[in-house]
Write a structure and sequence with these properties.
single chain; globular; 6-stranded parallel β-sheet; 15% strand; Rossmann fold; 2 domains; 390 residues; 8-stranded mixed β-sheet; alpha/beta
Length: 390
């Protein structure tokens, strides 16, 4: 702890400079705005990162730096951890952190911050090393994905060790809690459902449609995010429905071949906007009518346990929402129309386009208000202050 403020360390691979606005970056900013010292530890630079590029070297060269009140650090390590033996095992994971230069402890504790009072990690395999580096800190593991879908079954060995040494375990939804308790044997009392959320204030100040879409016809449908995650057949049905209604379909985010073909087939309806800076996204959403969460049905394992941030962002903008199924919907009761087929997607959009938008808007805004991130962060801060971490 510094002389006058508690210190929390967040750890996630997502680069701070990327356009991906993950929940950990959001929590870091909000925690800093509440007066804590905050450090964001990116994945250590390793030899494979150097070969792949994608900004990792630049992130290391820019480290440490401060942005939005958060100190961002990136050490380097000679040991990559990848999903092939023996790099996917506990020994490699431990070495990755313990051989960092500068050391994790030195990187995080520099600039007068001291050791963290709370360590908050999302990275499978990181908890034992972070526990060793900061033995006095409260160690939190935040489970943000069904990790085997991305890293294979071997990651479960890392997960079991992580959850055994963590003081607190948070998950983004009930489906992931069921996975931890059912498949990994974590006692249910040790797992808390934090859920997802949204910064509702960002959607209360958005004023006017961005000029590039101001002239597009209503009803306006919208997708924000990586388009390769979308389902081509469902989006084709959506395009036909918006075209029939005389409206527009906006696709914002890194493009995909299917999206380019769809735009060519419906040039008056489908608009490929491309990537936009995250701070600008609320203005696009608030200028739309129907939010689309039409994820690729062929990748069910990838979306197991998902509780998409997109749902909360769409709700905060007051949109009607059409979505493919997610496990979490069974307990979350979100304000969405769930669709399984192209026919259902088209019918849902047609129904929303013809309905009074105020009913859907009221449901969406009420849902968003119940899941405001700032309220959640303040509750967490109170919890750790009462526990003596601060």
């Amino acid at each position: 702890m510094t002389a006058d403020r508690p210190h929390i360390l967040f750890h996630r691979p997502t680069l701070w400079a990327s356009d991906i606005q993950c929940s950990t970056k959001l929590l870091s900013r909000l925690w800093a705005s509440e007066g804590w010292d905050v450090t964001y530890l990116q994945s250590p630079l390793d030899p494979v990162h150097l070969l792949r590029g994608k900004g990792y070297l630049g992130a290391w060269q820019d480290s440490p730096r401060i942005e939005d009140g958060v100190r961002i650090v990136t050490p380097a390590t000679p040991v990559p951890v990848r999903d092939i033996p023996p790099l996917d095992g506990p020994a490699a994971s431990d070495l990755r952190y313990r051989l960092c230069l500068p050391s994790i402890r030195r990187s995080v504790s520099a600039a007068g911050r001291g050791a963290p009072d709370v360590v908050w990690t999302t990275v499978p395999g990181s908890a034992p090393a972070l526990r060793a580096a900061f033995p006095a800190a409260r160690l939190v593991f935040h489970v943000i994905d069904y990790y085997p879908a991305f890293r294979g079954e071997a990651v479960k060995r890392l997960e079991r060790r992580d959850y055994a040494v963590a003081d607190d375990i948070f998950v983004i939804g009930q489906a992931l809690k069921d996975y931890l308790t059912g498949e990994l044997g974590v006692p249910p009392a040790r797992v808390s459902v934090l859920g997802q959320g949204v910064e509702t204030e960002r959607y209360q100040v958005a004023a006017g449609a961005p000029p590039e879409i101001a002239g597009l016809a209503h009803p306006r449908g919208i997708w924000t995010g990586v388009l390769s995650k979308g389902d081509p057949e469902l989006f084709a049905a959506a395009a036909r429905a918006f075209e029939a209604a005389g409206g527009s379909l906006l696709l914002i985010g890194p493009s995909a071949p299917w999206a380019e073909r769809l735009a060519a087939a419906h040039p008056q309806t489908v608009k490929l906007i491309g990537s936009r800076p995250p701070p600008s996204i609320p203005a696009y959403l608030c200028a739309a009518d129907i939010g689309l969460m039409l994820y690729d049905r062929a990748k069910a394992d990838v979306y197991r346990g998902q509780n998409p941030l997109k749902l909360y962002e769409y709700a905060a903008a007051g949109l009607a929402i059409v979505s493919t199924r997610h496990d979490e919907f069974a307990t979350l009761a979100p304000p969405v129309e769930i669709v399984d087929t192209p026919e259902e997607a088209g019918a849902a959009i047609t129904a929303f386009a013809a309905a009074d938008p105020q009913e859907a808007r009221a449901r969406a805004l009420g849902f968003a208000a119940r899941h405001d991130w700032r309220s959640k962060v303040r509750a967490l801060i109170e919890r750790y202050t009462e526990a003596g971490a601060a």
